[in-house]
Design a protein that fits this description.
By secondary structure, the chain is α/β, with parallel strands linked by helices. It folds into 2 domains: 2-60, Ubiquitin-like (UB roll), CATH 3.10.20; 70-300, TIM Barrel, CATH 3.20.20.70. Helix content is 31%, strand content 21%. It is built from 9 helices and 17 strands. It has helices spanning 18-24, 91-101, 142-156, 176-188, 201-210, 231-240, 254-262, 272-275, 280-300; strands at 2-5, 8-11, 33-36, 39-41, 56-60, 70-72, 75-77, 81-84, 105-109, 131-135, 160-163, 166-168, 173-174, 192-197, 214-217, 244-248, 267-270. An 8-stranded parallel β-sheet has the order 10-9-8-17-16-15-14-11. Strands 2-1-5-3-4 form a 5-stranded mixed β-sheet, with no helix packed on it. The chain has a two-stranded antiparallel ribbon with strand order 6-7. Strand 16, helix 7 (254-262) and strand 17 form a beta-alpha-beta unit. 36% of the residues are buried. The model has no long low-confidence stretch (mean pLDDT 86).
Length: 322
């Protein structure tokens, strides 16, 4: 039978008791509380309460307050720096840079297996350490993007995808119309869609309405290193959309990532700025610190901008000249 445990479906034996469920989840009874369909179940009743199809089980414990984790589709990330895996000089440098970044989510391209394609990337990654996010980079239509996403799901084994549909080959600007269409199809098929888009409010709203779990506006054209070009656009998106907001593409230096986070982005995705830096490992560390500083500043709340000066020292009691 199927039940729901902490928001996720579970297939368990018919009539399983709460105590048996905890055992199958690898949990010990100490420091836990359990509710079934919204009703708290006393600890001494766990053996006697047997579950039925469709029931909702909540298992909670106490954690340190103030944990600032990012949640996407029920999965939690302590790092708000997402990284790409392309353009590194060697696989060894990539591994070192990813470790220094602290990233828990990395993107990979889905490509035909040919001699000129280079070695597969997955054997070079610690798959138990990262959420691997296949992307549809190179797609120019919704149909092509959906096809690549389906291949990526089969390859990686989960339905997460970074959706990209390119409308212009020179700027790699996204085709928002096709991206929205692809999002609708993929969401209907159970995909968790993180959609690359422009920093346009209406486009972001359309993607959110289509079911995208994350909206990923570009900071600047992919790989350009130009930094955040439309900071007011990112700010508008933060004020209006409820989906996860990830600033993607064009980040050049840690201050770009920091600014995006100060504006309220939930995360940033960086590839070229790290991979092509003179010291990729050092730059990965710097990007991690930039993201952390920007997030801390956003949570702290900046002072309002004023059109005039406001003295820091008291204006009364200034000694007169002799």
């Amino acid at each position: 039978m199927e039940i729901e445990v902490n928001g996720a479906p579970r297939v368990v034996l018919e009539g399983l008791s709460l105590a048996e469920l905890l055992a199958t989840e690898g949990l010990t009874a100490k420091w836990l509380a359990v509710a079934v369909d919204g009703t708290v179940v006393a600890r001494d009743s766990w053996d006697a309460v047997h579950l039925h199809p469709g029931q909702r089980v909540e298992i909670v414990t106490a954690m340190a307050g103030g944990a600032d984790q990012l949640e996407i589709a029920g999965e939690h990330f302590s790092s708000r720096l997402f990284c790409g895996t392309g353009k590194y000089a060697t696989a060894a440098v990539m591994r070192q840079a990813l470790a220094a970044s602290g990233s828990q989510l990395v993107t990979v391209a889905v490509r035909l297996l040919r001699d000129q394609s280079g070695p597969p990337i997955l054997p070079e990654l610690e798959l138990d350490r990262f959420r691997i996010l296949p992307n549809t980079a190179g797609a120019h239509s919704a149909e092509q993007a959906v096809h690549i996403a389906r291949l990526g799901r089969e390859l990686i084994g989960h339905p997460w995808v970074k959706l990209e549909v390119i409308g212009d080959d020179q700027t790699l600007w996204p085709d928002v119309t096709e991206t929205v269409a692809a999002t609708k199809t993929l969401v209907a098929e159970g995909f968790v869609v993180l959609a690359y888009t422009s920093p346009d409010l209406v486009s972001a709203l359309r993607l959110e309405d289509a079911g995208a779990s994350a909206v990923m506006p570009l900071a600047a054209p992919i790989g350009s290193g130009q930094g955040l070009q439309d900071w007011s656009g990112i700010s508008r998106l933060r004020q209006r959309i409820q989906a996860t907001l990830v600033v993607d593409a064009g980040i050049g230096v840690p201050s770009d990532a920091c600014l995006a986070m100060e504006l309220g982005a939930d995360a940033v995705l960086v590839n070229t700025a790290i991979a092509r830096a003179q010291d990729p490992v050092g730059m990965a560390t710097a990007m991690r610190l930039g993201v952390e500083a920007g997030r801390a500043a956003f949570l702290a709340g900046r002072i309002p901008k004023l059109p005039f000066a406001e003295p820091s020292s008291p204006v009364q009691g200034v000694p007169a000249s002799s």
